[in-house]
Design brief:
The protein is built from nine helices and 13 strands. It has 376 residues and is α+β, with helices and mostly antiparallel strands. It folds into two domains: 67 residues, no CATH class; 232 residues, Jelly Rolls. Strands 1, 2, 3, 4, 5, 6, 9, 11, 12 and 13 form a ten-stranded mixed β-sheet that branches. Strands 8-7-10 form a three-stranded antiparallel β-sheet, with no helix packed on it. Strand 12 and strand 13 form a beta hairpin. It is globular. The termini are far apart. The structure holds 2-oxoglutaric acid (AKG). 2-oxoglutaric acid (AKG) binds next to strand 5, strand 10 and strand 11.
Length: 376
């Protein structure tokens, strides 16, 4: 009995600490700085949640007793208190928030687990997602599939296929058959390789990715784009929701797939865990990027990111990371320009948001059909 109480105390402490960390608190900061980062509301709601867990009366087995549920209050979004003069969305419809972004997500994970809708590992991953804004599926993609997709990338270049490319060094958009072969050795991305490469499509909509994205979105999954990198992108910290604004706010998930082991000098993906709870920038009543406000938005993201710890993602080949549409992330600087960082980044919508846009089935998921231009 005593052990169970100690365990409950430890669990409550653990959850309260990870929540506070996700809201920007850190042992390196003074109390006053922590109050500024987390906000009074954050501190109070963290304390209330842990007290609630501790004060639940134990049943005869020492577990928290199931009491009749009180009428549910509208779930409150979990947001980091703003510290900024930039325009931000101060009131968003509660229905825009996904179930893992509102107070009570822990109980909902427990409920799904008890009902057999998710397994133990999925419950752990979903908790990590709620707190940090990302989760990792280790060794998810079979090596053979990563090899086949890399062979397809080689074929795109050796056969100079008509695949769309974004050249990251000068912002040019073209097709592989229109650019000089030397473009391959500098940072670039191949767009939507899944349309022409069977291996890329199998990775894009791998069943474990689809399963987790489906749980997060609470819907069938539609893959909407894939980007294939051979080098680090060196993209500044940014938030995908602004550029790939989903039809319904917040309903977008991204994946990042390592096609080889990531070395520190290759410009790894960088993440700011917890930053998905920042209030979105307000582009004048819309979430979607407006060129005139872009410099101000970039300043907003650059100012806010340091409120959270930076993480460099040193993945192993076959690992998959899923990140929240509002998580701040980017590509770190490449220290060795000769070092490749072969990877894919992909994005997914909920099927109910896709409407009439043509989409084709693949396994338990779907992918957006787009016209594929052929060079013949
Ligand atoms: O892979 C990277 O370096 C960054 C990818 C990225 O930021 C994105 O696809 O949104």
């Amino acid at each position: 009995m005593e052990n169970r109480v100690t365990q409950r105390l430890a669990n409550a402490r653990e959850r309260a600490l990870s929540e506070l960390k996700a809201r920007g608190a850190s042992r390196q900061k003074t109390l006053a700085e922590n109050v500024r980062s987390v906000g009074v509301r954050g501190l109070v709601s963290g304390a209330v949640a842990s007290a609630r867990e501790l004060l639940r009366a134990p049943d005869s087995n020492g577990r928290a007793a199931a009491s009749p549920p009180p009428p549910p209050p509208p779930p409150q979004p979990i947001l980091v208190d703003p510290i900024t003069d930039h325009p931000i969305m101060r009131s968003e419809s509660p229905s825009s928030f996904l179930w893992l972004d509102v107070e009570g997500y822990e109980a909902e994970i427990d409920r799904k687990r008890a009902a057999g809708l998710i397994d133990r590992q999925e419950a752990v991953l979903l908790r990590e997602w709620a707190v940090n804004g990302y989760l990792v599926l280790r060794q998810c993609i079979p090596l053979e599939l990563t090899e086949r997709s890399l062979a397809d990338v080689d074929a795109v270049w050796s056969e100079r296929k008509h695949v769309q490319i974004d050249v990251l060094t000068d912002g040019r958009r073209a097709h592989v058959d229109e650019v000089d072969a030397s473009v391959r050795s500098a940072p670039h991305k191949l767009n939507d390789l899944y349309l022409t490469s069977d291996a890329a499509r199998q990775i894009f909509l791998h069943e474990r990715i689809v399963r987790m994205v489906g749980l997060i979105l609470g819907d069938e999954v539609v893959g909407c784009n894939s980007l294939t990198f051979e080098f680090g992108s060196q993209q500044p910290p940014h938030i995908d929701h602004v550029y790939m604004t989903p039809p319904a706010p917040r309903r977008l998930v991204a994946s990042w797939i390592a096609l080889e082991d990531v070395r520190p000098e290759s410009g790894p993906l960088a993440l700011w865990p917890g930053s998905h709870r920042l209030r979105p920038f307000d582009f004048g009543g819309t979430y979607h990027y407006l060129p005139a406000l872009e410099p101000q938005h970039t300043r907003y993201v650059a100012e806010q990111a340091p409120r959270f710890p930076e993480m460099q993602y040193l993945a192993k080949r076959g690992d998959v990371l899923l990140w929240h549409a509002l998580l701040v992330h980017g590509g770190s600087a490449i220290a060795n320009p000769g070092r490749t960082r072969k990877s894919m980044a992909c994005h997914y919508f909920a099927r109910r948001d896709v409407g009439p846009a043509p989409h084709a089935p693949f396994g338990l998921a779907w992918y957006l059909e787009k016209p594929v231009a052929h060079s013949e």
